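Bug: token stream looks shifted between consecutive jobs. Job 1:
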Amino acid sequence: MSEQTRERSGRRVVIAGAGMAGVQTAVALREQGFDGPVTLIGAEPHPPYDRPPLSKGVLLGKGEEAAFDVDFTGLGIDLRLGRRVTGVRPADKEADTDQGPVGYDVLVAATGARPVRLPGTEDAAGVHVLHNLDDALRLRPVLERGESVVVVGAGWIGAEFTTAAREAGCEVTVVEATGRPLSGALPEEVAVPMGAWYAESGATLHTGARVERVEPGAVLLADGRRLRADAVVVGIGARPDTAWLGGAVELGPQGEVLADERLRASAPDVYAVGDCASFPSARYGERLLIHHWDNALQGARTVAGSILGETAAAPYDPVPYFWSEQFGRFVQYAGHHAAADTLLWRGSPRDAAWSVCWLREGRLVALLAVGRPRDLAQGRRLIASGALVDPGLARDPGRPLKSAVA
């Protein structure tokens, strides 16, 4: 343990949020030598759990929640569940909760994101989101009964839920306001072929369709169409859960904490990690807000190091990564393609497995792999290294992805 770490170990660390980002921050603090008080506050009453199984095993009743394998007591982590953080007073070094204030020397915001609700349906019966364990448990009987479901939104969550619902034998209709699925995530030429997956699964996909209102047993579209729906599942995005921070720290346009390269917020001794924070990426030359599991895991280690004063470590600038299982396909994405100047295919979307590469000035900056995990692994390393690639060779799905420089 360094002298700097010893000096900082007596401070009280309070972590708001007991999801992946919060739990891993607490664990990383212990792994990196912090022996001071750590309090982990979670809004849900359930022991902290992993979220990816919610849209898979938990939803289909094939498995229970995947509680984190963490011995909180053995690590000396004060776990306080069923308690929501409602505010913070940096001048007083106190976080307010619905069960009273909690004093801190260091505060970590790890409260994740809240799902966006369909206007006018916040309290409507039969209208669901799929964000936490209770959401999955409420939806499980819908699938068990094989009810007809209208899914609003053809993004990642919409696709994963549709996959599970079709596996359960539900009649599924998906309504997407834009002209294609994954419109906020992928360009048209990549996303449009993926729309065919819905029909292959037996689901009906309506694009360019807006919901006018939800009625008992039906969804009415703006063009007058009426869709039968025993249940409605809304998957139209999420926003950082940061309202509790008020004006204590600087927030971005989506309400995210504007963290720096060490994931420090604008207020002294306040940090932010996971879905509720954006950070400046030197790799991509812009600020990134990433709502994915891997970001929460990696960011936690940086926050722990920052709290312990390990400023010599590299700034936080990961290669973003996520994966999704949908319609019998394993889909992986690494990088960030917004500023790419070249898109090239490895294989065809008509194939069982294919990939798409995005290049900028000859360097791989992002990759989408469908059923080609080796492409993803190779591409992720190339993105991290900033290596040049040969576009001609990269187009050949029979060749490995590798640097153009020997």
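Job 2, same session, no restart:
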Amino acid sequence: MRQVFDGDRAAPQRAVTHALDSGPTLGIVNPARARDRFMLARVEPDPGLADLVHWHWVITWDLPPGTAFTQTVMPHPVGHVVAEETGILGYAMPADLFERTLAGSGAVVGTKLRPGGYRALLGLTHPGERGTVEPADFLGPTAARTGAEARDQAMAGRPDDAVRTVTPLLDAAAERARTPRATAALAALREAFAVIADAVPGTTVATLAARLGTTPRSLQRLFADWVGVSPKWVLQRHRVHLAAEMLGRDPGLELAGLAAAVGYYDQAHFTGDFVRAVGVAPGEYARRCAAALGATD
């Protein structure tokens, strides 16, 4: 999926800490290349939203006239709610690599949901068709105005205020979303994803299910109903995210050792999964990251 954002001409103030310099960049392809193209701030959700929201993210950019920048993202198995130029939209998990092209000056204020949060928040009977974008009608009739106010706060360099602006809408939608079934599914998924994040090399769906005290079939059904991809897919994607993160920080890593470190028994399987997720082989990705890091020195 590719989108073009050509925002307002008022330049954002650059007073916030760049999240690309201060935390993990899992999913952001070649993050060093992005550091002087846009600002990214991450904001923790209110505790009352932590069951549905992983974090909020606020992006601002101010590019010279006639220039554009395209950022590629390897999707996580979650949906997002995003306040942008056209209003507030709900983004289901992308079907493939996700690209945004930025031009001019502008801002977006996003909310990364927890696994299963997209289905719960939108009141769906399925996890959402991958790649679809929906108007955020579930946030009510004031969503468009609230989204514009949040973007104005972001453009002024106030990401915390931007998030506070949209939080009441999310709170109201979350209250409606917390059915007993959704609450149980979200809790089970949060536990499963926590185990995946700490999984040792060689973890399989069977060992994951055993650690969670369930069966592989039950775990697969939970993921199919609420996430839209299998536990095996999530395990593989997490390994590739880790590998890309490590190469982004140190492109000189030896690839066979990297493959073993993130859980692959042979480099061929690692390379195949990496190409499917990132679009290029690990060696080529390392070369591009090295070039970007050199350009920012």
